[in-house]
Amino acid sequence: MSILDAQHDLSAFRQAIRDWLAEVVPPDWKARMARASNEEYIAFQRWWMAERSKVGLAIPHWPKEYGGAGLSQRHLIAVADEMARADAPQNRLFTISLIHMPGTLLPHGTEAQKRRYLSGVANGEVWCQGFSEPNSGSDLASLRCRAVRDGDHYVINGQKIWSSNSMYADHCLLLTRTDPNAQKHRGITYFIMDMRSPGVEVRPIRQANGRAEFGELFLTDVRIPAENMIGAENDGWRVAQATLASERGVISFEGGERQRYEIEAFYRNSLKVGAAWLKDAQLHREFVSFLAEMQAARRLLRRVLEESETQGASASVLPSIVKLSSTVLRQRICSFMVRISGMDGQAFALLAEEPFGSPMFDFLSAFSGTIAGGTNEIQRNIVAERGLGMPRV
Amino acid sequence: MVTSAIETTSTPDQATLDALRESVANVLTEQCDSTELHAFVDGKNALDKILWAQAGQLGWLGLGIPEQFGGLGMCSQGLVILHGELGRQSAPGPYIATLSAAQTIVETGDEAMRATWLPRLASGEVSAAVPATLDVSGLTRSGAGVSGAMRCLGAADAALLLAPADDAWVVVDLDGAEVAAASMWDRTRDVFDVRLEDATPVGVLPDSAATRAALTRTLALAVAADSAGGARSITERTIAYMKTREQFGRPIAGFQALKHRAADLATKLAVADEMVRHAVQRTVTGEPDADLWASLAKSEVTEACVFITTDCVQLHGGVGFTWDFDPHIFLKRARLNEVLIMANTALRDQAAAALAAITASGRSALELGL
Predict the structure, then answer these.
(1) Chain A residues with CB-CB distance to B under 8 A?
(2) What's phi and psi for B193, nearest 5 deg?
(3) Which DSSP state fits A279?
(4) Is the pLDDT at A145 greater than 80, yes or no?
(5) Angle CA A58–A252–A42, to nearest 5
(6) Quick check: B366 and A264 CB within 8 A?
(7) Element (H, E) at A294
(8) Could you tell me which residues come within 8 angstroms of residue B14 by beta carbon, excluding any fewer than 6 positions away?
(9) Chain A residues closer than 8 Å to B360 by CB
(10) What ipTM was predicted for this assembly?
């Protein structure tokens, strides 16, 4: 069965997704995953990708010629919305595979690269991103990881950091320095790196929330075939803009929708058990203020999706404005949850088993929103300079 | 001047709303620019009267009034556009009180009341007043008469007052009533005190609770839209100033500390606009949570506007604190907006109660309806 058969009628499409989710999502998956080892978690993620693949929902947003279904933005909104509504697992392991890789290869890859790599994702190939370096964070263009041509290969030496799920990745979207003498934006080259190449070493980084989702990449004399270059030599910065631009979109939208259901479940439960915080008028006021901001953020996330299909979307600063508003709101909501959960909330717990079941974990995790994907400070520069026309220094 | 585009009926489409916004903006940017506004604040022109007469001619005052009563029937969507643009220019005049009273009469008045007042309100022949805050004790009712003192939002020459009198809501003809205009920090708004002695209401609204709810919601949408428009306008003016003001040999708009503040203001503005849109959308489709979101739009957006206008004074530096520059006009209007209807804490309490009631009934108050 393919859910895609129902795509011509949006409400039937939604219903098909809903029926499938009711059938396939294990009701206890959150509780199981809360106690799962890394290996179990990864196996679960791969299983979920395989299930999505069976019904045509692995890569529904890609063009048909590369194995996708070419679904419209409205359909993707429906998919994300139904996933959130059913509290279905997220494709965390495949974020780069599903968003950044096609966002880069579709506009800039060679035909051979598209044929080779796009279809691999539905079969479970995991991608990671090799952009940031220990000394090149917000100033990404200052990156130093070196690539030197050697016949029909490039030889890579350097270090990458904050590479999500790189411990499990098959391929890496890698930015390197090919011309150290050029102006910093002009000497960068973009490669696809096989993560099983000799000389690739990955060390997980443990985060403040106790988990290790990022890796640090140590690259020593790694050989990459020249055919794995995306775009032209020294034109990697331009290609990288496509990768960065692809981050705006469905994932954030789905996150916003999930938060809606989480917070609603939390509130319904608070009413049911007569939670103490409800008796505090000021806390109640804060809570409804969050809801007003959340509705605004959800509307803005939708607008980013609608705008992404229009001309001139790449010049818009709306994605930056949305990132600023929704990530800070997330942090404030999580902070509120920590405050109202008192001493109980301070007891160590990893993954949340129920909405805001581990407020400190959620609060600490919320920094990934305000820091990753271009810190909020960089987003403010973008809004001020590109959106408000304030001069660059 | 584009007026033909807005003379349409029933649920307006986006193109009609855009045309409305453009035509209102064109008139106001031309006639209510900074120079005229400052002259008005200093008592040197009658900008409020000029704009009001024009608003009547252009149909603005009948935007939300059904056609059979001389209006354009564009409901809340049209009204928030008008209030947003009036806010953008800090335009003086009794728009919020008059249009909200009219909208309430549309929703909960009886036929006689509608037929008597709506055409006159739509044309601008008369203006209306409402209580400046709704959580104060209203007038008292004894026999057929109402008595008491009340601080009102609206022009001192308003023809009618829509107000609570004990457990009823009444329309009082203010002709001959004892009225004293109050001097406010926000000179773009009219506030007056009225004292009534056994005045005979010209109408009693059939459903008090529905009337209170309708007036609260329409005022909330109007005040929120006015605040969102004002906040956006003063932010644009402030950033324009920062691009021309030089210190340390370059425009202060180039300093990162100030850029980040400006970006945060832009973010707050985007959120404020969406809060207003969400509340309007829920109102237009008549959702049970419409009042909840209108109350929250008012409380959140007016506070954001106070934050933004305050920061705009600061971002101007010394001149921001002067009478001659624009920020203080917007700041004062923002502070008045903040306290209208009722304290924001009280509006949030109402929203919280509504949320609890809707949730307890097994429904969701969090649908976007998009």
Answers:
(1) 260, 263-264, 267-268, 271, 278, 281, 284-285, 287-289, 291-300, 302, 318, 321-322, 324-325, 377, 379-385, 387-393
(2) -105, 135
(3) G
(4) yes
(5) 50
(6) yes
(7) helix A281-308
(8) none
(9) 271
(10) 0.94
Q: Answer yes or no: do B80 and B219 share one domain.
A: no
Q: Print the domain residue range for B7.
A: 1-92
| Whether the predicted pLDDT of A235 surpasses 60 | yes
pLDDT band at A393 (very low <50, low <70, confident <90, very high): confident
Give the CATH number for residue B290. Answer: 1.20.140.10
* Residue A5 CB coordination number (10 Å): 12
Buried-state track B333-370, b at ≥16 Cβ within 10 A, e below 16: bbbbbbebbbebebbbbbbbebbbebbeeeeebbeeee
What superfamily would CATH give domain A127-237?
A: Butyryl-CoA Dehydrogenase, subunit A, domain 2 (2.40.110.10)
- What is the third-level CATH fold of A247-387? Butyryl-CoA Dehydrogenase, subunit A; domain 3 (1.20.140)
Using a CB-CB distance cutoff of 8 angstroms, which residues of chain B are in contact with residue A275? none
**Any residues with CB less than 8 A from the CB of A97 and at least 6 apart, and which?**
A121, A125, A126, A127
Sequence-ordered list of residues with C-beta below 8 angstroms from that of A222, at least 6 positions apart, any chain: A155, A156, A157, A193, A197, A198, A199, A200
Separation between Cα atoms, residue A218 and residue A222, nearest integer Å: 10
Q: A191 vs chain B: nearest CA distance in angstroms?
A: 34
Strand, coil or helix: A375: coil
Total number of domains in chain B: 2
Q: Tell me whether residues A384 and B262 touch, CB distance under 8 A.
A: yes
Lowest-pLDDT range of A255-269, A298-312, B80-94: A298-312
Strand partners, B26: none
Instruction: Average pLDDT across each block of 10 residues of chain B; the chain has 370 residues. List them in order.
Output: 37 90 97 98 98 96 95 92 98 98 96 96 97 91 94 97 95 95 97 96 95 98 98 98 97 98 98 98 96 98 98 97 97 98 98 97 94
Would you call A391 and B271 a contact, using CB atoms and an 8 Å cutoff? no
Same domain, yes or no: B215 and B77: no
